[in-house]
Amino acid sequence: MTPKNVCIPRELQLQAAMFRLGNVDEEIHAGYEILQKYHKTVTFFGSARISEDNGYYQKAKELAFQLAKDGYTIITGGGGGIMEAANRGAIEAGGQSIGFNIRLPHEQSLNKYTTDSFAFTHFAPRKIVMTLLADAYVCFPGGFGTMDEICEIITLTQTKKMTPVPIVLFDKKFWHKWDEFVHESILPNKLISDGDEKIYTITEDITEVVDLIKSQQTCCDR
Q1: In degrees rounded to 5, what are phi and psi of residue 39?
Q2: Pick the CATH number of 22-221 from 3.40.50.450, 3.40.50.150, 3.40.50.720, 2.40.280.10
């Protein structure tokens, strides 16, 4: 434990950081080994703080259930809230459910609804694995972590570093202000290109989401 007010030389801080990052490649490889076992996947993002009696929890579970019935493996961050709901929906449908958990100081427990899992030490490789070649991404309401993840996926699509797939922001009421900011501030100031605002879809219609994802798969199978 470093005493307070002790100034650690920057070089030592960098060396310590690099030491901690030494197993990043191993973590990415471990995640890849899991992903390659599954043909069709949908990644869910959303708050870990949402309880089982919350409507978002129930919707996430229902959507994951329907997708799992259609043969999609559900991927989440493996924690509680929306992650638990999506993993649970897949399990209750008799499907496959992956949890890519993260080790934290106040450790985030892996929910009990996964058929495959891996616990990452670092956020960076975890994010790479969770955004690696999914057939779709569904973002339920969440906090800063969810915002980080959705912006990452949209940016990768915008810059053509990722093959375009459905990106769904679930619940119009929650995402309305975010979408308004994109259309009324970012786009008019030419901070993104025309058409970038159409990279994502906002809806709370489960049938619409399932149909959108299945239509993408149909196009890929042609």
Answers
A1: -80, -40
A2: 3.40.50.450
